[in-house]
Amino acid sequence: MTIVHEHGVDSVRFHFCGCITTTGQMMESEAIQFLSCDLFPRSWKEPRTVFTLGVLRQFHLLSMQANVNGHDFYAYLQRTTDNVRADHVLDRYREFLTGMWEFAFLRTVKRAGCEPGRNIGSGALAVWCPACPQPDKNMDPNWSDRPIHEQFLDALFHTIDSNFHQNMKDKSSDPDDFPLTCGAAYFADENDFKVFQTYIGPLKPEPSTCNKFEAMGYGTYRGKVSGTVGVICARHMFVLPGGGVDLQKGERFTNVDFALLLALQPWMGLHIHVAGYDIACMCTIRKTLFPWTLPAIGKFHLPAHIPSCCYKFSYHYLPGVGITDGEAPERIWPAINALATRTREMSAGHRHDVINDYHSDHNVRRTHGLARKLSKKYEEALEQKVSAQEWCSILVPVLTVKEASLEMLRLHGPQQPGLVGLIEEGIEIEELQYVHPLRAVTSGIDYKSIDDTSKDMQDRKTAYQTRLETWALRYESVLGNALREAVDAVAANHISMGYDDTFLYAMMLENEETVLEQVHLSDLEESEVESGSETLDAMVGEKRKSTKEHGLGAEVTTSRVELPSKYAAPILRHSTLKAAVDVERQLCESQAGNMLRELRTELILKYSLLKAKAQGSGVTAHTRTNVRIHRKQKTIDRAAWRYRHARRALLALGMDANDRRFHELMDEDKRAFVMDTNDERLGDSRKAPSWIWEDITFVETDETEKGLPDAMRVHWFRQCTTANRWKEQVLLLEVEMRRTCRFFRHYQQRWLDNAHEHEARSNARRAAYARRQAFRYTRLLEGCKERFPAKCFVA
């Protein structure tokens, strides 16, 4: 007798017992005697090879966890027996495969509490999802009475997808071969499917109303079976029973319909189904045969569809779906693809049994970790819900400077236009002074007359100084008296407290920036000059040289613009300057908003240039693109500086440093959001974008002003849908945690009842196994109690 054990292969002599049993029956068969000794016979009539249960369990676990195949494992046993002449070890590879097939099936029926046989029952050997709605097992007693707006809480989220790695070679096999788990696990009943195939027409590509995907039969497929299609729980990654079907050529709608028809039988009484499918846009015609179904396309596959599909079938926008991406099959298939190297060589029946066994192992592992997964998702959902709602609450458009001026004129009445115009012009002059000192003296120069450049720039400087002096006179006439009154009042107050004029002077310079982040001469906006012309480039160089020689930029920079924000806080708090402070603050808010708009626009343009560079080729094209990217970066840096300058003025005018509209702009905040699906990374949907994208009014231009309200509504809609999805996610997870507890409690009681029945029949072995299974669910319930919130744990 050959015995295969954990340490190799050996030949051992056996002597069978010939005694009569205690019940008076004849002696037990050889196979039964082997089983009583923890040995599994290859044959049930005249066994000549047996396997220890330990070696079978070892290979079964290794094949599930590490995808070890039978050939390699038996070679390992041979080398364990004799590592020098392994070829002399008895070859029982064929017997090992057959014995393992039977052993795996018997373990499956034992764990399911069923008797082995040919007609076990649909889904009886499958491991069901504890968190999905299971009528009569884990649903709320009053689930059918929920109002319409809450019915999504009891919906079944499923998705169907094909795996073309799970194919089978076109080779001859045993015509009498059949799967031991026929119709009882994750594949639809094979006999019913054979009958169904006789009624479908010849194979041909399905008509496409979207892009012609290869999965629809437009690709090339080989083999007797081109792949499999399966129905998966979209939220918890469980393989649903009865939804597996072999494919002959692409994802034919008839095969998909058959899989859905059989897989969804237990859930036909639910109010809502959320059905995910990679090509859901083209197979919704059959959905009328099912309960009210909400079709959706997985987030990963959505960009491959035409634009209309991206909005009608997106998990982002469909109500009641929570944070579901619909890509659960894509996470299961990679793990099972390694199994395909074995299953494609098997017979049809053996292949289905092995795949079913792997799916059960996958579902068992998901069951054991479900409490941890749900609790982790719940904590994340609570956090993301608050964050998303905050984003919706701060989507307030920022007025432009002109809009702010008109609004202030409307609010303050006819006596304020002089003040508004005065401070508005002061801000413009200060912007020229600090940000673009050269523009004040170079704007409008005709570069065709290079020889006159210096004279023209001198004239511009004189005009700028005249404008500044004129503004200073207006400033004195409008705010001079109020400013002196405020200064005198503050000075008198501080002198009475023992301070001298030196202290007062230091206070008045409190808000003056001691170090100005001057924009370098090379940062002059290149857009003012057409690129690509050597003549113009030479003129720009000559202009810079002339500017340096005359020092006109330095003269402009040293000019002082006495805006209210330049004075100390005690002076600004005086009642006589309240109107001026309010006006400058509103104008600075508009200026800061405008700079954020410009920053966003330039970031998007730079992103587009980077994408164009990646798609282009050639040194000349890359050089030209690099120049444009460099210019955009300078524009981004200037916009950031101008925003920071406006924010410093706002802080001096009394704005809270934690104002939600105008955060401190850090260098890491100057980044574009992901606009191309190719740039998305796992987890991006859970990361908040940079705070600068909280407002999208930056899209406003003269040409698009009429479309601005629509753009704002779209942005508001997207952010609010995200907030609603996270709100739904919290509610769905709470219901799923309760269903999980009820599911574990249901099966705990079921196995306890089973144990009582076997004890009543004096079958101690089966009763012990049933209690062991009941204790398994007891442990799972303890895990739920430890991790779930008290309101979500059902005792």
UniProtKB/TrEMBL annotation:
Q: Where is the CxC2-like cysteine cluster KDZ transposase-associated domain positioned along the sequence?
A: 1-84
Domain of life where this protein originates: Eukaryota
**Which InterPro entries does the UniProt entry name for this protein?**
CxC2_KDZ-assoc, KDZ
Q: Which residues form a coiled coil?
A: none
The record's PANTHER family line, in alphabetical order, gives: CXC1-LIKE CYSTEINE CLUSTER ASSOCIATED WITH KDZ TRANSPOSASES DOMAIN-CONTAINING PROTEIN, CXC2 DOMAIN-CONTAINING PROTEIN
Q: What protein name does the entry list? A: CxC2-like cysteine cluster KDZ transposase-associated domain-containing protein
Give the originating organism: Obba rivulosa
